[in-house]
Each structure stands twice: as structure tokens, then as C-alpha cells.
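Supplementary Methods, section 5.1.

A reviewer requested that the exact input to the structure prediction be made available. We therefore reproduce it here, unchanged from the version used in the analyses.
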Amino acid sequence: MISVQEAHRIIRASIAMSGAEELALEKLPGRVLSCDMTAPFPLPRFTNAAMDGFAVKFDDIRNAAAESPVTLRVMDRVKAGHASALAL
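The structure derived from this sequence is encoded cell-by-cell as follows.
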């Protein structure tokens, strides 16, 4: 049996990096981007909830774990199709 490090070395040595190419959207499944992609404007372009769910700040849950749970406070209730007056 080989080590994990040796397996990684063998895999990296046998994979060739391909260059970037432009393709139609329907040919993209299974591919990865060669660079970051950003929207030219904020998405979504409106400030309302599209569906039910929760929004949390990562800093509030950063250290949460099964052994050390955190308690979060509900700041607002926003129904789908409506906007909150609060900003997280």
C-alpha cells in the first residue's frame, strides 16, 4: 500500500492542465471556471425574500459545534415576496 502523499504525487503527475476555452452554456456541465466570475450588478436586484429560510452572519456561527452550540436571536420575520426593514 502507498501513502496518501505518494498517491497525490502520482495523481498530480498523471493529470495535464488544460488551457481555458470559451464554450456555450449548454456545454458547461462537469466543467470548472478558469477564473473568478462576478456579476456587473448586485444579484438579486431587489431586496425581498424569494423563499422562506434563515439568514445568519458567519461570525455568529463561526465557532458553533455539536459540543459548543450557539444561540441565535430572531431579528425579523420576513415572508416570501416581502422585504425586511433590517440589514444584517
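Helices lie at 4-14, 58-61. These observations are discussed further in the main text.
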